[in-house]
Amino acid sequence: MPATKPAPAVNRLIAALPHPERQRFLAGCEPVTLAFGEILAEPGAPISHVYFPTESFISLTTTMNGPARLGLLLVGDEGMLGISLILGLNRSPLHASVQGPGQALRMEAAQFCRALERGTALPGLLKRYLYVMMGQLAQTGVCNRFHLLEARLARWLLMAQDRAHSDCFHVTHEFLARILGVRRVGITKAASALQNRKLIRYHRGDIRILDRGGLEASACSCFRLDKSLYARIME
């Protein structure tokens, strides 16, 4: 699948560190390849590793009504998995699984905590990122309650495109229905509307973004608010 731009060589959080601290931090990381559907965290389970996606992206969900899960955030090269460690809590609050396969950097949780203790820029950087995540979680709550499904779907597809660094990625109607908390028929109707306007092409789970500008115009304001929050706090 053709990429719109080359995947970044390193996670953006790590890249924001001053050079000496960044080099020390990278020395404690190992490159890993994350597989589609791989489970990286379960609610309440101890955190063994933190992950910094570079090409991959991770879906964060919370449980509702038994096995059903509602989507909260996507984490790609702009973020990390395991942020609760900066609060001194070695438990995952959410379910995390790989939605976009690819490369990531991984560090053992104990080593990450040591890096926090001796780091100068790292603790402040990750506290700002935690603030951004809190704001985005709140925005998702508003979005799920008040915005129409077609706009919410457009928002999710844009978020996925940004983290996949590609116009093409794989996601099924069944997964989208679970992640957006709606019936599958609703996703089919919303996706068909976007496809009929030639904003996307969808076939057997493979989605291609055809008109990024048109899709942004169809998305709810939450997408722009999420991006502006990250830019204001992190950049």
UniProtKB/TrEMBL annotation:
Keywords recorded for this protein, A-Z: DNA-binding, Transcription, Transcription regulation
Protein name: Crp/Fnr family transcriptional regulator
Organism (species): Marinobacterium aestuariivivens
Keyword Transcription regulation belongs to the record: yes
Domain HTH crp-type: 147-213
Pfam families from the UniProt entry: HTH_Crp_2 (PF13545)
